[in-house]
Specification:
The structure is a single chain. The protein is of the alpha/beta class. Helix content is 43%, strand content 17%. The longest helix is centred in the first third of the chain and has 22 residues, at 95-116. It is globular. The protein binds nicotinamide-adenine-dinucleotide and 2'deoxy-thymidine-5'-diphospho-alpha-D-glucose. Residues 8, 10-14, 34-37, 39-40, 60-62, 82-86, 101, 105, 129, 131, 160, 183, 185-186, 192 line the site of nicotinamide-adenine-dinucleotide.
Length: 350
């Protein structure tokens, strides 16, 4: 039996990856390590938490000694590393948490893995999950390739870029068996409502203003989260050692167009008249250093591993709206407590 560590498994993407691995690989023992920050929520995993091949460990990747003890205890065969501080706006308000978790935390995991794999790397793998934001901001043309030079522009993307460099450095210097991927914007169930899609669904339902940064002209490439999880499974098992794979939805939307689409769907589902909630759109001060456009060229993963998105945007987006409208209790739980303080600082006192 292989033992696989998934970090950040109580978060948005991590919970989909844990679910996929636990269900698909009964022969693996899946250990989910998560600090349970504001973004981590074990109720994301209630459907698999009693499976015999699943274990949860609460821990902090910034604590090197704790990580070494965990690796000594479980003798992991593989690591799928998703734990991170992930929200750009929070990185602007408080960069240090991002430096600690995203950079120091990643190196702690690399060191702990290297220590337990000292007798040889045969059958071992360290998979680092990253973002397209490391490549910087595109103009109207072009897409990010795996060979695009890094040009991170927010504390979040700079911290992810640093961790990517360190993972590659451990490959070249110590021959650590690593693989990496850089993905575009995900949407789907269990995303914390600080990110555009769940935040705006929540606000439309509650008739609250929809804070559009700048002119709403920025473009993102949207991918359904379960398609990302499928890509992660493929890369973990079949990706070539030392390689990086870009993952994207081939699905670019200008923010304002996406928001109008969202309003159309939510209004319909709530029985409101068409376009009723357009009045909630409120243009606010732009995000500092706001990257204009991201777009992924996912040719490499398609040609090498046969991966392509399976979920059509129209279907994925509608089912995502359904999920948030149906799971009001989940939204209410995660938006109580500290969330109110964050919301006030980010949107009311701007
Ligand atoms: P998330 O914020 O929803 O979840 C992050 C998880 O990491 C949470 O469960 C949190 O508790 C945990 N965590 C944070 N700090 C920790 C620490 N110090 N020790 C242990 N656990 C800690 O993030 P997400 O959106 O699911 O993103 C997951 C990964 O995917 C991140 O590495 C992110 O950079 C990357 N990514 C995200 C997207 C996206 O659109 N969301 C796109 C591309 C890449
Ligand atoms: O591209 C991948 C990245 O996508 C991931 O690495 C990040 O972890 C993830 O958070 C996401 O980053 P973005 O900054 O693109 O996502 P966010 O949902 O915060 O914002 C999407 C776009 O919407 C962006 O152009 C900013 C804008 N926006 C966002 C919020 C929260 C608004 O206009 N208003 C808002 O209130």
């Amino acid at each position: 039996m292989k033992t696989i560590l998934i970090t950040g498994g109580a978060g948005f993407i991590g919970s989909h990856v844990v679910r996929l691995f636990v269900n698909k690989y009964p022969q693996y023992r899946i250990v989910n390590l998560d600090k349970l920050t504001y973004a981590g929520n074990l109720t994301n995993l209630t459907d698999i938490e009693n499976k015999p091949n699943y274990v949860f460990e609460r821990g902090d990747i910034t604590d090197g000694d704790q990580m070494q003890q965990l690796f000594d205890k479980y003798q992991f065969d593989g690591v799928v590393h998703l734990a991170a501080e992930s929200h750009v706006d929070r990185s602007i308000a408080n960069p240090m948490e991002f430096i600690m978790t995203n950079i120091v935390g990643t190196v702690n995991l690399l060191n702990a893995a290297r220590a337990i794999w000292k007798d040889g790397f045969e059958g071992k793998r360290f998979y680092h999950i990253s973002t397209d934001e490391v490549y910087g901001s595109l103009g109207d043309e072009g897409k990010f390739l795996e060979t695009t030079p890094y040009d991170p522009r927010s504390p979040y993307s700079a911290s992810k870029a640093s961790s990517d460099h360190l993972v590659r450095a451990y490959f070249h210097t110590f021959h650590m068996p690593v693989v990496l991927s850089n993905c575009s914007n995900n949407y789907g169930p269990y995303q914390f409502p600080e990110k555009l899609v769940p935040l705006f669904i929540h606000n439309i339902r509650n008739n609250k203003p929809l804070p559009v940064y700048g002119k709403g002209e920025n473009v993102r490439d949207w991918l359904y989260v379960e398609d990302h999880a499928i890509a992660i499974d493929l890369i973990f098992h079949k990706g070539r050692e030392g390689e990086t794979y870009n993952i994207g939805g081939n699905n670019e939307w200008q923010n304002i167009k996406l928001i109008q689409k969202l309003i159309e769907i939510v209004d319909l589902k709530l029985g409101r008249s068409a376009g009723e909630s357009l009045k909630l759109i409120t243009y606010v001060k732009d995000r500092a250093g706001h990257d204009l456009r991201y777009a992924i060229d996912a040719t490499k993963i398609k040609e090498e591993l046969g991966w392509e998105p399976t979920v059509k945007f129209t279907e994925g987006f509608e089912s995502t709206v359904d999920w948030y409208l149906t799971n009001e209790e989940w939204l209410n739980n995660v938006t109580s407590g500290d969330y109110q303080k964050y919301y006030e600082q980010q949107y009311v006192k701007r």
